[in-house]
Amino acid sequence: MTQTSSQLSAPHEAMFLILPYLTLFELLSLTQVCKSFRDALKHDILPWLNIVVGKPINTRFSDEFLVKIMSKAKGRLNVVALRNCYKITDEGLLQVIASNPFINKLYLQGCTSLTIEGVIGAIKLLTKPNHKLKNLAISGIYNVKIEDFQTLCYLMGINQMQMKQITKNFYHVRHELYAFKQESQPSIDVDICQKCGEIREVFDCPRDSCKRRMQQQQQQQQKQLLIECRGCFLCVPRCEECGVCTKDEELGEAACVDILCLNCWLHLPKCNFCNKAYCNQHAYQQHVGSSLGFLCSECSFHATQSSH
Known about the structure:
Elements lengths: L4 H5 L5 H4 L5 H7 L4 H9 L6 E4 L9 H8 L8 E4 L7 H10 L5 E3 L8 H11 L8 E3 L8 H11 L3 H7 L24 E2 L6 E2 L1 E2 L4 H12 L11 E2 L18 E2 L7 E2 H6 L29 H11 L1
Parallel strand pairs: 1-2, 2-3, 3-4
Antiparallel strand pairs: 5-6, 7-8, 9-10
Keywords: Signal
Organism: Solanum pennellii (Tomato)
Protein name: F-box protein SKIP28
């Protein structure tokens, strides 16, 4: 018995098992492969329940495109993660939230066209008596005042002191796009920096000696946790690779603008000429030639100039 053409063109059932693991960029690319793939994604709601927008499509995400993509979840969105989507405005965000009132995790890092007033409006819609927003990320949104932060904490039912004691926020994992899968993350990614008083991401130190000092303060039930190395990125310099505080620490020379502790620097590959290292985030700047190793951007530039 021969199969009909529609049966031949239908996607294999195994494809539906991998769809929830694909990134948004991969899902959108898949819709362009053929009509059967496009129809399969159109009628399958599962891949659209957790929307994570990152590179390379974040800079092209407008309000109109955001609403169109989010509508594929048919009002059942669980996670919305927008990283550096600077074209998204309050209007687009509120339209998505109004259509998806049961979002559990909302990440808006670097969405600089959003206002704190718009974010507070969205959180009010997501914190009704029958629903609780578990996690919120707003680092990179401008003009957040202490009273705005306190309003968000009140709406989400966050005890600020308890939040500092239970959850830790580490500098070296801040760029992890899929951090929403971690259950031990802070309820809100910003805090009041005890050193400068600004609302920013405040980081804890993963160094063992700093952890012990923090535990001692907690055991002594001090009213304020004023550990020396807990603060925002402007107040406490940290190693880009491991996140430890670098005060009184010997540093390794970095080829990029980031800070590297000596221990991490020793384990990273170095420029063949100046012996400076790139952190993993900026390793793409390495200029690899025909020989082993690489040249940093500055040494490669000088080498090119001298050859002319």
